[in-house]
Amino acid sequence: MKMSALDRVKASVEAELKVWDQPSIAVGVIKDGKVELCEGFGYADVESGRKADADTLYQIGSCSKAFTAAAAAVLVDQGKLDWDKPVIEYLPWIRFMDPFTTYHATTRDLLCHRTGLPRHDAYWIDGPCTRRDMVENLRNMQPAWSFRSNWCYQNTCFVAVGMLIEALSGQTWEEFVRENLLEPIGMTRTTFFVDDIAGDPNHAEPYDRVVPTDLTGMTKIPFLKSDREDRAKGIGAPYGPAGSIMSTVRDMLKWVEFNLNDGKVGDKQIISEANMKELHKPQMLMSTPLLMDYPEMDFYSYGLGWFLETYRGHKMVEHGGNINGFSALTTMIPDQKLGVVCLVNFNDSFNTYATTYDILDSYLGAEGGDWHNRMRAFIADTFRAMLEQNKGADSEQIPNTTPTHPAEAYAGTYRNACYGDIVIAQKDGKLTFTYNKQESPLTHFHYDTFRIDDVHALFNGMTFSFETGKNGKVEAIRFGIVMNPAAKDEIFTKVEG
Questions:
Q1: Which domain does 194 fall in, by range?
Q2: Does 238 share its domain with 289?
Q3: E strand or H helix at 377, and its extent?
């Protein structure tokens, strides 16, 4: 007897979860308006043995971006927002480092990642900033490309759209999204606050690799929280509009159905069909895929809060999400009325992609793409490339050199307008590097260049150089910030010590 598409999927999901050595995956499939699968596999909490199910809460990370774009579409429908008016007309205080961008960047530009800004993420991760702080910091971010000339993923621009929504609606971003999207769609379990998910008896705990470059082994890690959460005002994490939503696979299937139905819930049109088309329409071409390149996929582009590609000749609308200890992927094949949701409580899990593509193949009648093995091979190759890159850096090291100054001369606080403070401290002749909440030991590389050696640090393996002024004293740090490969080095000027 031939196995159905659904049987094929269910037979592989749990088995592959064990091979991936990850705690749980919640999987949802909807086809032609019918929920075919909505189930949790594995453990929401490994230590207690608590199982995952369809109503287990997961953080969905950047899958939140589609909600922010949809919220903006609601305002367009209401006549309060124009996709193509400069954002400065709605937020008079917003500024970019490039004046042309300041006066011409539109909501459409911010939502499709074409401002010319690279990611510039490090400043807000575990950093003491508010939502307003994040958006005001746009003026301090060096562009890597000219305005609208290149695509590059940029989280802070989505936070700016969140603040625009707040300014035009008179509500917090959280209140507006809940009232205009979550409640009409029936997403009753979905929330924005880490306290909600951590206090819910049916939530997934976050996990990560024990060793960042090892495919096996897992360890529980803390939730990503903000020091400045202001729950009394209905405001969650500062990065909220870019990635703070928490949901279940059951709720996310409702979100997928809403998108496949062109903005309708039952007979009620929540967002106009015209603006749903804007959300799902290519707005900015990508020269290369964000993560991986396979022959089954081509035509890489970005809509408004959604990635748009073709998969085996079909238009695919999708967005992934990764945030401390969680991975998510929402995917739709509109011409097949097919949607897939995968939620995993594991950091940077490609199990979401492998499971999704396996499901798509099952429903599209395609020969199996061996996606799980291909994805694991991709990750292994990525790890090897990282290690080779580090070896390459080591080959540039000039041996038998010593620092120009004694250890205490490097100690002090160094400041950058965008990234804030780096603190270099010395004890017993050894130096440490502290940024936001992360303290890491430093290893001498050569001359006045040092390296961060801490496998769990944001800047692990990165080198930076101290610069000496005309007075012979250390006065700055030159640093190529992680996740900004196309950006110029940042200069941190010594302000104390």
A1: 5-367
A2: yes
A3: helix 371-395
CATH code of residue 434? 2.40.128.50
Q: Answer whether residue 393 is part of any domain.
A: no
Residue that is last in its domain, among 345, 367, 389:
367
As given in the structure block, the two tokens for residue 287 are: 């020269």
Same domain, 149 and 64: yes
CATH number of the structural domain spanning residue 359: 3.40.710.10
- Report the b/e string of 371-396 with b at 16+ CB within 10 A: bbebbbebbeeeeeeeeeeeeeeeee
Q: Are the beta carbons of 199 and 205 closer than 8 angstroms?
A: no
Q: Are residues 229 and 149 in the same domain?
A: yes
Structure tokens at 492: 């941190």
DSSP 32: T
Q: Are residues 268 and 150 in the same domain?
A: yes
Residue 251 to residues 271, 316, 381: CA-CA distances in angstroms? Answer: 18, 21, 35
pTM of the model: 0.95
Q: Residues 111, 66: contact at Cβ < 8 Å?
A: no
Q: Is residue 429 packed enough to be buried (19+ CB in 10 Å), middle (13-18) or exposed (0-12)?
A: exposed
Q: For residues 304 and 411, state if they share a domain.
A: no
| Cα angle 129-131-133, degrees, rounded to a multiple of 5 | 55
372 in any annotated domain:
no
Among candidate residues 332, 316, 348, the one with its CA nearest the CA of residue 59: 348
Residue 397 placed within a domain: no
Cα separations in angstroms, 246 against 17, 69, 198: 22, 17, 11
The beta strands (E) that lie in 46-80 are given as: 50-51, 58-59
End residue of a domain, out of 367, 390, 424: 367
Domain match, 334 and 434 both: no
Count of structural domains, the chain: 2
pLDDT tens track, the chain, 497 positions = 345 767 777 888 989 999 999 999 999 999 999 999 999 999 999 999 999 999 999 999 999 999 999 999 999 999 999 999 999 999 999 999 999 999 999 999 999 999 999 999 988 887 778 999 999 999 999 999 999 999 999 999 999 999 999 999 999 999 999 999 999 999 999 999 998 888 899 999 999 998 877 888 899 999 987 766 777 778 889 999 999 999 999 999 999 999 999 999 999 999 999 999 999 999 999 988 888 889 999 999 999 999 999 999 999 999 999 999 999 999 999 999 999 999 999 999 999 999 999 999 999 999 878 999 999 999 988 878 766 765 556 668 899 999 999 999 999 999 999 999 999 999 888 999 999 888 999 999 999 999 998 877 778 888 899 999 999 999 999 988 866 667 789 999 999 88
Total Cβ atoms within 10 A of residue 191:
21
Query: What is the CB neighbour count within 10 angstroms for residue 2?
Result: 5
Same domain, 107 and 39: yes
Q: Are residue 146 and residue 276 in the same domain, yes or no?
A: yes
CA distance 376 to 64: 26
